[in-house]
Every structure is written in structure tokens, then in C-alpha cells.
């Protein structure tokens, strides 16, 4: 099952969010074999939050990037060993599962190290000519019994950490057997007795030899253990050294990564460690949750994405150049996106991407869920400014009519409410409204003027005119402007109230009538750049 993200552009508007949610819903219904997840690339604006709220739909998750992460390639099923597990058991698991590395955990499940085939091999090749010792790799008597598939005749489950001997010499010969050692002998009661007398803590009898009563009694008296092994002396002694807990042989500082780390970063590090692998650990618990080996790094499948409402790389999700773009659904010009494989791409000049999503629902004979229908309606009304923008087409009108029927509501009323909620500046401080978007202009000589603009719907700011005029005047004097104006532009009523502080004469010359208590009504005026600044500059 593929996981395919559906995303609009950065600084998402209502169309980008609604189209991602709507198209993901449609794709999931048409293609249940794969997963489609709508995502967003940035913070939601006030209008989109209102529409989401109204629809009851959940906001999409933020997708910070679409580069490959460790979790996209890591193996999630793999054997792990407890650090007390005998080396032999771990080695057998590695052979059976055809692994050259397995993670080792402690009793809490936290990663303690990794056991590698290489460490196992080195142990034997590099073994010295000194007597074999368990000093660095203590083993429990019970682990030794288990590995030997032997039998404990007497003694407690102690930890043994001495040297390991095969006692093959005559008892009269000089021996170095000492306190705490492990001694392997055959059917030689004299040798058994000598070993116990010299303080061996564990006596292992090879070839299934049973100890005489007298030896068992002696061992009990000395606090030593006696084990019967079905194996010959050489194999028995070898198995004893393999009974040590694997912590003795593991690499205690393995290369680790977090599942959300960028794969490209981890890939470099994997190449630098001799076992060519990294263990993915869960942040916080440090439990191993994944394994990345060299073969997982060979041409990993890219993450998949459907782009809606944009086709510009710069507007898209970081890493899109490395992702697999599955499809593009857009109503803008053809952008800068490049793909390596052919993709289904739609660039259809209608008023909103949501219109295209609705058309596809209808072509498929499906109806969007009520939350999605509400979102898509909001998106269409947003992009077309309630079907008023010059980009509006008959197809947008038809889609809006359809959703009006589906949702049984008045689209124009809904759109008006949406714009009002989305551009609600009634609580924004006057200073912000006056300065946030202000631009300065030079009018020749030392004379400057400043013009700010705020977009609203309805009379939200009417009651605050005196407060705004006062703020304009204090900003004007603070910066020495000849004139400071604020355009309060109603995007639905399509007109501007110009609030002016400073010399009133240029305003009168520019617009043909005087300000009424600092306010000039300019019906049809929407553009600061085209309709307000040029006449003002010409008049000062
Ligand atoms: Mn759009």
C-alpha cells in the first residue's frame, strides 16, 4: 500500500487546503488500495480556519518536507537479543535469520548495543594463546547448562568468571587450576577431586560421565557446581565460552538514528561504520524500532505526492524535486515543476482548484462528504471573491449551484460570512492597522507621504474611524510626512474609505472632493498602486 500525500502550496489559502482535503477524499474512494493524506505546508489563515471550523473537518497535518526519512526505508521486523542472552543463542539466531547484525537490548527494552557477525568472527581469530578466561564475559551456570544441553548435578546458579581448563594431564603433573576456575574432565575421579580441592567453582564432566557420590559430596562441601555434558571435552569447553551473555561481545555504542531523521544524513554515517547499518530508536524510550542496512539504501522508493492548486517548485513542499509527483491538479499557469516520469497533469483555467475537484467527484458519480462539500464551496467562493473575480467561469457557477443544492444553503450568504470572519480586524490595534502594510512615497523635495491599506468586508472598522485618524496623525508627525492615509477597502462592496491625516488640499485635488472629517469615500477604488498613489503624488 502506497502512502500518497496531497498538498496545496506554501502560505496556504482556503482553495489549497480544501482542494487537498477534497481530492484526497475522492482519490481514497476511487483507489482504496492506497492511502491518500491531505497535508498543509504552512499556517492556516483566519478565513481557512473559519471554513474548517464551520465544516467540521479536521485541519490537515503540517508536512515540513518530503525528503526521504529513515522511517521510509527502515526494516521494522528484525530479531533482537537481550544482553544476557548467551553468545551462542545470538549467533544461532543470526545464522537462522541470515543477519550479520542484531540489536541487543537491556531488560527495559532500551538499546544496549549491537551484536555483529564481524565481532563474533574476530573473537575467534584473535583469540590469544593464553588460557581462555570468562573474566570479561562471565556466564551463569544455568546458561552453561542450557548451551551444553547438559544437567546440573549439584550447586547453585552462580556466575562464573574464572579461566576455563580441559584437565587432560596426570594428577601428579603441575597444574595452574585455581580458585573460581571452570574445569572440564572425563571419567577420571582423581582429576575431579584435584580440581575441586584447588577451588574450581564449576566442574563439567564431558561425554555424559556421571560423578561418583564422593565427588558430589566434595563439591557440596566446597560450594562448587557439577554439570554433566553430553559433549566431548573440546566441544564442551568451546560451548562454555559461548555461554557468556552477548553484552560481552556487543558493540556498546552502535550507530543510531531517529525514524524522522533525513535518510541522506544517515546514509553517510552508515557508510562509515564497519557493520554498515544503523539502528532506528524511538526518541524518549530508546527502544529499537527499525534497522537500516546498506541494502535498504540502494535506490529507495521516493515519497509520493499529488500537487493541487500550484505547480511551482518554489511554492511547493521542500524536497519535491526528489519526490515522485503522482499527479497535478491546478487552475494556474503551468509552473516550474519538473518530473522524471509522465504524470497526469491538469491546468484548467477555472476560478478555483476546488471547482476541478467537484467536477471530478461528479464525473465519478460521487458526492463529497458534507464537511468536504462545505470546504470546497468555501474555496470556490474565496478564490472567485463570491463569483465576482474576472477569473470566474460558468463551470464555477455550476459547481457552486451544485453545492448549494447538496448543502441546502445560500452560497452568497455563506461567502459573505466567510469573508467577514476571515478579514475581521475589529480587534486589531489601531497602530498595527495603520503601520503594518504602510508604504512611503517621495513627492519631490523633502516631502513624503505614506499610504497603508487594510482589506475588510462590511463595516467592521466604521466605529473606529476617530481612533484610526488619531493614530494616523501621530504616525504622520512622528515621521514628518506631509500626508498619511489609510485605505479601508471593502473587497465585496468594491470600494475604499480613505482616512487622511495631514494637509487636506492634495486629497481634494486628487479625488475631486474634500475629506469629510478626515474621510473620503472612493467607490470602485480597490488598488493602492493604480488608483490612489498616482493621483496623490500628482497633487501634492
Ligand atoms: Mn486556487
Summarize the structure.
The chain has 18 helices and 24 strands. It is of the alpha/beta class and 540 residues long.
Q: What hetero molecules are bound to the protein chains? A: manganese (II) ion
Cα gyration radius (Å)? 40 Å
The name of the CATH topology of the largest domain is inorganic pyrophosphatase (n-terminal core)
Residue share in helices? 25-40%
| Shape type | elongated
Strand order of the largest sheet: 3-2-1-17-18-19
Descriptive report:
With 540 residues, this protein is of the alpha/beta class. A six-stranded parallel sheet has the order 3-2-1-17-18-19. It has a five-stranded mixed sheet with strand order 8-13-12-11-10, sandwiched between helices. Helix 1 (14-30) packs parallel to helix 11 (353-363), helix 12 (370-383) packs across helix 14 (411-422) and helix 17 crosses helix 18. The longest helix has 17 residues, at 14-30. Manganese (II) ion is lined by residues 15, 309, 331, 352-353, 383.
